[in-house]
Design brief:
The protein has about 525 residues and is α/β, with parallel strands linked by helices. It has 16 helices and 22 strands. The longest helix has 16 residues. The radius of gyration is 25 Å and the shape is globular.
Length: about 525
């Protein structure tokens, strides 16, 4: 056969690749997803107090007066006793001193991992370090800075093409909040109607999970609704108008569908591309369109059980669970986009850190490959790139270990490689999803309307090497043109729609189609 590189007949004289009927049908779908910043976004999650050391801590020492305590940055958070006078735990009053100004110095680092959004735990004025006990939903915590500091952060993010997502904690306030204190002081106080005072409750009032420091508010009371989301001066709309791009709603499962829908509609009234995402630990089905997206703890649970070998049926069983999720969501218009907007989460401020929950490096690598290749919007919890550890509250909330968050550290380099790959592959951000038929592994495809975007992921979550013959069900993939693993360069043979895979124990392949065979491209006229 003539060498195609030397044969003048093989010069690029053919017409450009043209889309087929299916491509044309999907083109508008992908355009819509591409234009929606929320679909497939990478979000970096920060606790302001713990991310970067303050540059002017000496000017803030008075803010950490007893019973609060300012810790050394080298200290690790530990569980403490109760401070009965304030109905709060000692660990909730320990601060490390990070603030909004110092946070801005860490934005270069955050962008290294392709993050297009920054999510902050609550920054509202509150007594505790975690700020889920707000005194005033509209005020910035003095320890974190001023409203000008907040605006400067938004301006900095805007200049980088990044978005800011705030934590909305509207289900409850702090016990020290002026409104609750007024309600406690007098049964005739108008603020009394904001809360549910009744002796059937453990503390004489309804508190979130019976935590005395977290009295719940009545989200159906007209004044509460006006304060939180009704009208242009409400908290939800005012912060969006100031440049915030979305709200993560704390304990969103407690709101109910009607209130969630009203908050979501109010946010979209202010800006139609606002993201309203809920902390919902349930199966994801049925919450859309009450809310734009959820934190996808369901996929997290499947992933952890797969890697702990606690999922009966292993990889194929996880594949069936994922396939049914997509089928359930796709019954409703926009349901798949809802999945693309939902956060793919491995750890956060409420869970054990990934390095503690999954101590094995190989298994952690698989977890992160799943996080960044399954349909959704990956959430990076600060410190995962440094291999930070931590179990139950407050251990998972330690200060950022910057000395390990550098190139050359195994966790850093792995996360960087995975996020770089995702940035290159549009299919991993907005592509369709199909589970493939396997006997031993988990395998799935992510596709757009272009063959070059196709990705096939194969995961062997077992102690033995696996050999599979897998129908890949993609008519554009050419026979005899291999698929290549993005991380190892391993070639996987394809013949007539079938993938022949041999994959080591506890490993994952992220396969992309080779452009040519022997220098000749069989894809020359395929879109």
């Amino acid at each position: 056969m003539t060498d195609p590189k030397a044969d003048p007949r093989m010069t690029d004289r053919h017409p450009p690749a043209s889309p087929g009927p299916n491509d044309l049908a999907m083109a508008e779908v992908f355009r819509r997803r591409r234009d929606d910043w929320r679909c497939g976004a990478v979000t970096y999650h920060v606790m302001v107090d713990r991310f970067t050391q303050s540059h002017d801590i000496d000017t803030k020492l008075h803010l950490y007066a007893p019973p609060r305590k300012l810790m050394k940055w080298s200290d690790e958070p530990k569980r403490g006793g109760r401070v009965e006078e304030h109905n709060i735990s000692e660990q909730e009053l320990e601060f490390w001193g990070g603030d909004l100004r110092s946070l801005r110095t860490g934005l270069d680092h955050i962008q290294r991992f392709g993050a297009t959004a920054l999510y902050l735990n609550p920054i509202q004025d509150a007594f505790s370090n975690h700020k889920y006990d707000a005194n005033d939903w509209g005020a910035i915590a003095p320890e974190f800075g001023t409203h000008d500091d907040f605006k400067a952060l938004i301006d900095d993010l805007d200049s980088r093409g990044m978005r800011l997502i705030l934590d909305g904690v509207f289900n409850h306030v702090g016990r020290r909040s002026p409104r609750f204190q007024a309600a406690l002081a007098s049964e005739d106080a108008p603020e009394r109607a904001w809360f549910d005072f009744d002796n059937r409750h453990k503390h004489g009032y309804r508190a979130w999970h019976n935590a005395a420091n977290l009295p719940e508010v009545d989200m159906h009371h007209p004044e509460v609704r006006a304060e939180v989301f009704e009208g242009p001066d409400s908290i939800v709309r005012r912060f969006l108008r100031e440049g915030v791009s979305g709200w993560r709603l704390d304990v969103a499962y407690d709101y109910g569908h009607a209130v969630l829908k009203e908050i979501t509609d109010a946010a979209h009234t202010e800006r139609d591309d606002a993201l309203v995402i809920g902390e919902i630990w349930n199966y994801p089905d049925s919450w859309y369109p009450s809310i734009d997206a959820i934190m996808n703890f369901y996929v997290r649970e499947l992933t952890l059980n797969l890697l702990r070998t606690e999922l009966p049926g292993g990889g194929p069983a996880m594949g069936r669970g994922l396939e049914r999720l997509v089928q359930d969501l796709s019954k409703q218009a926009g349901g798949y986009e809802y999945l693309l907007r939902s956060w793919l989460i491995l750890d956060n401020h409420d869970t054990g850190r990934l390095a503690t929950v999954i101590p094995d490096q190989r298994k952690r690598a698989i977890a992160q490959i799943l996080q960044f290749t399954l349909p959704g919007a990956p959430l990076i919890y600060y410190g995962v790139e440094a291999g930070m550890t931590g179990g139950t509250d407050p251990e998972m909330r330690g200060p950022m270990r910057w000395q390990r968050a550098t190139p050359g550290h195994e966790e850093f380099d792995r996360l960087k490689a995975i996020t770089d790959l995702r940035a290159e592959c549009e299919a991993l951000r907005i592509g369709e999803f199909s589970v493939l038929d396997t006997q031993h592994t988990l395998a799935y495809t992510r596709t757009t309307d272009r063959w070059r975007d196709t990705v096939i992921v194969v995961v062997n979550a077992s102690d033995r090497p696996a050999k599979e013959v897998v129908p890949h069900r993609d008519g554009k993939l050419m026979g005899h043109c291999p698929m290549i693993d993005a991380f190892t360069g391993t070639e996987v043979r394809t013949d007539a729609g079938v993938l022949h895979v041999e994959i080591p124990a506890w490993s994952a392949y992220v396969l992309r189609p080779a452009d040519t065979v022997g220098g000749y491209s069989p894809y020359k006229r395929i879109h």
